[in-house]
Amino acid sequence: MKRLAGVLAGLAVLAAGAVEARPLRVMALDQCADQYVLALRPDAELGLSPRADDPDSWMREAAAGRQRIRPTLEAATAFEPDVVVRYWGGEPRLLARLKAKGTQVITISDATTFNEIKENISTVSQGLGVPGRGEALAARMHATLQRAAPEPATPQRSALYLTAGGFTAGKGTLMDAILAAAGLRNAAAKPFFAPVSVERIALFPPARFVLGFFDQPRSDWRGPGRHPVVQRAAKGRIAARLPSAALTCPAWFAADAAAMLKDGT
Predict the structure, then answer these.
(1) pLDDT value at position 15?
(2) 105 has which bridge partners?
(3) Separation between Cα atoms, residue 77 and residue 230, nearest integer Å
(4) What is the DSSP letter of 24?
(5) How many Cα atoms sit within 13 Å of 68 on the Cβ side?
(6) Cβ within 8 Å of residue 211, ≥6 positions away
(7) How far is CA 86 from CA 155, 156, 157, 205, in A?
(8) What is the DSSP string of 239-255?
(9) Under DSSP, is residue 115 helix (H, G, I), strand (E, B) or coil?
(10) Is the pTM of this model over 0.70?
(11) Which of 71, 112, 113, 238 could cross-link with 29 by S-S, CB 3.0 to 4.6 Å?
(12) Pairing between β-strand 184-186 and β-strand 193-195 as defined by DSSP bridges
């Protein structure tokens, strides 16, 4: 009897050790969260969103072979995450249940400046237990911004940001911060996001265009931004074509978008 009790006690210790040794289990509820967890905790057991390796995902190559989980209560219950990261993903019932179970939920805030992105990096990295990695990622973003900055005494040029869907972004948007980081003056007349008039572009074409989300052929393929009149107006005036992967999330790679503007990508 004593021998059996000893065996059972030993098994309990082994089981406890196995539980303790289990890697951190992190679930991302949307594509933006995917980017952060892949960059900051690639060593964790990750449950990524279904869109983690889509063409508009910046970290799509790092997502290859990783587990995908739909952001539902049933899927989260089965995965049993230690930490959940989200930007917009996760319906209220799911979030409430996770918090009730004691699961840590980290929310990525919307950001319109690079300082706010730095705060996001700090928040997520600390929540995932890797503040040093967050500092390194923020430093990399800063170095990229320095590379994107124009040379001293360079005349400021004007550019209009335009999406395939026919929208632009004025003051109070991250795109405005991206343009400014590359030394460009935003030609958008109104703050925030607003539709662009095809007729106005035809009559008063901007000096330069910065195109976004044109790399997805099926995205807004009949949108105003693809209108023949707009395409003719933009011919010879395109400062850069920014890939959608650099624009879908308020993250460190917004600095890469600014560097692309300087390089004329």
Answers:
(1) 44
(2) 84
(3) 49
(4) P
(5) 13
(6) 162, 163, 164, 225, 234, 238, 240, 241, 242
(7) 40, 37, 37, 39
(8) EEEE-GGGTSSSSTTHH
(9) helix
(10) yes
(11) 71
(12) unpaired
